[in-house]
Write a structure and sequence with these properties.
By secondary structure, this protein is α/β, with parallel strands linked by helices. The chain folds into two domains: 339 residues, Vaccinia Virus protein VP39 (Rossmann fold, 3-Layer(aba) Sandwich), CATH 3.40.50; 87 residues, no CATH class. 37% of the residues lie in helices and 16% in strands. It contains 17 helices and eleven strands. Helix 7 crosses helix 10. The longest helix has 17 residues. The two termini are 32 Å apart. This is Class I SAM-dependent methyltransferase.
Length: 439
């Protein structure tokens, strides 16, 4: 089937939510149990009525991140964006991206693919609550992607999915083939050290509640275990979980009873991408993978600076110990966009989410930000003048206009360039200030 034109769903869907045969799945006992899990307990547990009062924000698939980390702030916003959420679950990433596109009045469509009818029903109800017309739903198996004739995509989200699949590399390779020229992906996988304790309890529950039992029976056993879990259990000591332990039955089941749950060190994650023909443009947040930020000893920092970036990232993961997931943006090998020049006076900086005035208020008297990398809080040093620059960043003023305003406050161009370089370098690495694409 000829791929449809970007921005058009015509010819793709004989009916909304078309059912696709699953005979191409790599069926096994674990896969059968996994399918039953997500029908019984769609994850994450969401109430469509909540869409009237809040939008869940995260990474990957934040539109400003896609513009910057995938397309290098070079792809015009007026160009239609065709996106696939591969394994959308109940729709967090898809709803966020479709809402961002709609609010910005940008052309595009988001295709939500999942084999769970129950999960898709919730995602569809969430989209209807928001009156989103740029989102479409396909029930089908990600392991049979090549048979679905969905065409090519400018952006693919595969978040929290690869680590549950029979063959993650084969699926990621197939997703790479589904990228349009110049396109990229947002990926998330579980990480081992921040999930300390999870796999111990999973192993115990695999014996107490085997995967061939009905999901309801397995969940009952898990609840009973958690009510009396010894205080010495490593899971009790782990504060890196939010939605899983507070997310109702679906969260508990996904954390402790999932029949196939891999985790990847950052080195293994980068290797997986490499084997699939991808290279990372950004690990999220980039500064999180810099061990120098929490190693103040000058000799250690000097030693770290001598090491390759991948080795630094591994050290950060091993020493911090609290990374429960890894999030990355990636493109085909050799297609990494040129890094935008933040010193170009025509460049337009934009706050990723938190308003600049609010971020400035969070700066301490010593000009540091107490930045949280999960449960790890690190003091981030910024130039004193950043306190005055941040409230001026509105997504409309360019860097030259910021310099003009600072000049009226006694900050000359030379000084401004130094301050802006230092400020942007750190705030970009924190994923707080990015650059806006052209109209």
């Amino acid at each position: 089937m000829k791929p449809p034109k970007p921005g058009s769903a015509a010819g793709l869907f004989p009916a909304e939510g078309r059912l696709f045969m699953e005979e191409h799945d790599r069926a096994d006992n674990r896969d059968t149990s996994l399918a039953a899990q997500y029908e019984a307990y769609p994850y994450p547990e969401r109430d469509p009525q909540d869409e009237t009062r809040r939008l869940l924000i995260g990474s990957p698939s934040h539109l400003r991140e896609i513009d910057y980390w995938i397309f290098g702030a070079q792809r015009p916003a007026s160009q239609s964006l065709r996106a696939l959420v591969a394994g959308c679950g109940t729709g967090d990433g898809a709803i966020m991206l479709a809402t961002h596109l709609a609010r910005a009045q940008r052309p595009g469509e988001v295709i939500c693919l999942d084999r769970s009818k129950a999960a898709l029903d919730i995602a569809r109800a969430r989209a209807q609550a928001r009156q989103l017309s740029n989102i479409h739903f396909v029930q089908g198996s990600l392991t049979a992607l090549a048979t679905l004739d969905l065409g090519l995509f400018d952006y693919i989200d595969c978040c929290g999915v690869l680590h549950h699949l029979p063959d993650p590399l084969a699926t990621l390779t197939e997703l790479t083939r589904s990228l349009a020229p110049g396109g990229g992906m947002g990926l998330m996988v579980y990480a081992p050290y921040g999930r300390t304790g999870v796999y111990m309890v999973q192993d115990a529950l695999a014996r107490l509640a085997p995967i061939d039992q009905p999901p309801e029976a397995r969940l009952d056993i898990a609840r009973r275990v958690m009510r009396t879990l010894p205080a010495t259990a490593w899971l009790r000591q782990n504060g890196n979980f939010g939605d899983h332990l507070s997310g109702g039955d679906a969260g508990l089941y996904d954390l402790l009873l999932n029949p196939r749950d891999r985790s990847y060190t950052i080195a293994a994650f980068l290797e997986l991408m490499d084997k699939a023909g991808l290279e990372s443009t950004c690990l999220m947040e980039p500064a999180r993978y810099d061990p120098a930020l929490f190693l103040p000893d000058p000799r250690l920092r000097s030693r770290v600076a001598e090491l390759p970036a991948q080795v630094q990232a591994s050290i950060a993961e091993e020493l911090a110990g609290n990374m429960a997931t890894h999030v990355a943006y990636a493109v085909r090998k050799g297609c990494k966009p040129a890094r935008p020049d933040p010193m170009d006076f025509n460049a337009v900086p934009v706050m990723r989410e938190i308003p600049g005035a609010e971020l400035a208020r969070q700066m301490r008297p010593d000009n540091t930000l107490a930045f949280s990398f999960g449960t790890l809080v690190v003091p981030i040093v910024l130039p004193p003048q950043a306190r005055g620059i941040l409230p001026l960043i509105d997504g409309e003023r360019n860097v030259g206009q910021l310099a003009e305003i600072l000049a009226t406050r006694g900050v000359g161009e030379t000084k401004f360039r130094q301050v802006w370089h230092e400020s942007f370098d750190m705030l970009e690495r924190l994923n707080r200030v990015l650059l806006r694409p052209p109209p």
